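Quick start: read one record
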Amino acid sequence: MKRKIRPAEEEMGNVAFLILFAILWYACLVASLVNGGTRITVLLFFVAGLFPVYSAVTMIRKALFYRRQRADAIAYGSSQWGKIRGVMRQDIPYRSGEHNTLRYHRYYYLQVDITDPVTGAVSTIQSQGYRKPIHRYLASAQVRVYTDRSGWKHYLEDFQYKRRMSDPGIFDDRPMEFEETRAGNGRVIQVLFIAVFILIVLSSFFQN
């Protein structure tokens, strides 16, 4: 099973969806201009279409910022092997929507034991948060831990992933739970949204 699971802060999220949305949006505007659409209306729609573009650019810049930090830590070269001893799940509350509805982002944190090569003392560090239940994809508890120049931030690399999800994992003794992230990250909903959006825009522009 070939994959690379990144921490949430290094993910680009739904950038592909936002870019596709913007392409469809502006394609509809061009079609409206060709068919004699009202220029003021087209201008308003043009400005509105900049919001998803801005969101996509912001998400990309944020992900690249944290990826550069990881690359700097790896280039620094301070690393050692560690052993994953546990996983912690945390639900972070946030509010969104017109009615300021309370929702939760779910993150998974790996707890890794590392041994000081000089003293032999064992310490436990915690990874960044992952949106995916990364522990379900791992075939081995061994992982390489990179430490940045400050000595405070740690990055996990060289995960050994399962070939198939049915293969034995590192926490098979723990009860399974419903993992929303395994259902495709809401891609089905995104596709349906795009389809409905296209139908609405086309009907509004070409009903006459």
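Helices lie at 15-34, 39-48, 50-76, 187-206.
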